[in-house]
Amino acid sequence: MSACLIYFTSFLVFSMLSFFLSLNFMSLDFMMVLEIEMVSVNSCSVVMSILLDWMSLLFASFVLFISSMVIFYSHEYMEGDLMINRFIMLVVMFVISMLLLIFSPNLISILLGWDGLGLVSYCLVIYYQNVKSFNAGMLTALTNRLGDVAFLMSIAWMLNFGSWNYLFFLDFMLNSIEMQIIMFLMLLAGMTKSAQIPFSSWLPAAMAAPTPVSSLVHSSTLVTAGVYLLIRFNFCMGDSVKIILLFVASLTMFMAGLGASYEFDLKKIIALSTLSQLGLMMSILAMGGYVLAFYHLLTHALFKALLFMCAGAMIHGLGNCQDIRFMGGMISQMPLTCVFFVICNMSLCGLPFLSGFYSKDLILEFVSMDNLGVYTYMIYYVSTGLTVAYTFRLIYYVLSGDYNHFSFHSISDLGLVMLKGMVGIIFFVVFMGSGLSWMILSTPYFICLSFWMKSMTLIVTAFGGWFGYELAQLLLSYKSKSLKFIWSSMFFGSMWNTPYISTFGVNFYPLHGGISVYETVDQGWSEYLGSQNFYFSLSLLSKFLQIFHNSNLKIFLSLTVMWVMFLILMIF
Q1: What predicted TM-score, i.e. pTM, was given to this entire model?
Q2: pLDDT band at 109 (very low <50, low <70, confident <90, very high)
Q3: Which of 222, 335, 378, 453 is in Cβ range 3.0-4.6 Å of 217 for a Cys bridge?
Q4: Any idea where the NADH:quinone oxidoreductase/Mrp antiporter transmembrane domain is (predicted)?
Q5: For residues 220 and 241, what is the distance between their CA atoms, to the nearest angstrom?
Q6: Distance between terminal CA atoms of the chain?
């Protein structure tokens, strides 16, 4: 308990300090770059740069606050673990890597945080050490390595500018071909870390990690690193990069909403909702609303962290059961946790005056004001409807109806440490949306829409709730046993087959090809023409020489006569 309490207290204090500093920097419109000289040899110096502005300080305060609550929550959730101190140290390393990424204006120091996140996330995903965890960890690590390679290539391209401090070159090197290449590579890095199509499959797989880690990863650390990086680089985004990002991110948002509507694993449903919200942030960033993307990033961090904590409390009580079909009637078993769960889900849907509403409604109205065409407009509102649909389906399965698990159970709201960790966040989930809107949006957005366009969000939300209820009923009915429905649910529920592409395409087919090459080349032609051929040739020669050994005296005398005759012929 001592290690948990120490880290919880220190993170909470630093979070408050960072928050008030960000308010100060915001009010003064102030920014500071600190350069700390680490090593200096002759004229060569290694300098550590730290960027302090309202954005980095505010995001750091949220990361520290959520991680402090998660560490406090972990003490009870991981109480059966004999190595809980190791787990806490991994979480602390994870948070430090994220902070290094947030405060760095330098690509080299960002890479330290970036790779630190990748390495520690692998250690946390494989924490339970079974086959599923190992596969998920390897998929996570290898997918993120693609983005790391793009990052390393952008570091090499930055040598054209003579410095790795990208912040100094974003404005006046805007139109150079080098900056456009760097921006494209950064886009690839951000897409892998934030799990956009076609790199989406690692995000649900990473649910093999303990639930407190999922709470931290999906709210404010690993998956938001890509969004934060692109927010920093948004000033040099060209039109081609923006169009690519808008198309990919909007498709990701739609695909994740469909996948969550067919999923039965509680943690994977919440993970797919994170993927949907990441698509929302990325797409609004591609439209030029980087402040809106950052605003939604912060509000989403609050309710998603608490959503995972509530899910963890339910899984903990159900003896590690994650299938929502085995739940039901949970509201009577653990009422306070379920109240928190519903509030977070409503915030995710954008229910008025919760934190998610302020950012999400503003984003949708911003999209409605834009003139990007019917595709963007439709996919935004359809994805919003799907968000409400899978949320209502989740609430229907988990909270209502009869209790479907074992009659012998230990589900209750008596986990006081976990409840205290959740109570710490719930007030921010309810009130922080409006508070952030007053702080971040110094100039109010002027939205001028017709009555029906203004009402579209409400209409789509109501329709999505009805659709989610009907889908839950359909999945329970006999129609869900039909072959056509099974095929469609397999396609939509598997995120348009991206996990099969990333596992079979990356693992199975190369291994299968390797077996074929082994059988035809290593054990086939190379044996026939190589070692086996040498063996047969040498054995034939040895058999020929064996004849001499079998009748050696007769042959020796014959060879002697022949040698004497040869000498006589040579003499004469």
Answers
A1: 0.84
A2: confident
A3: 222
A4: 104-372
A5: 25
A6: 108
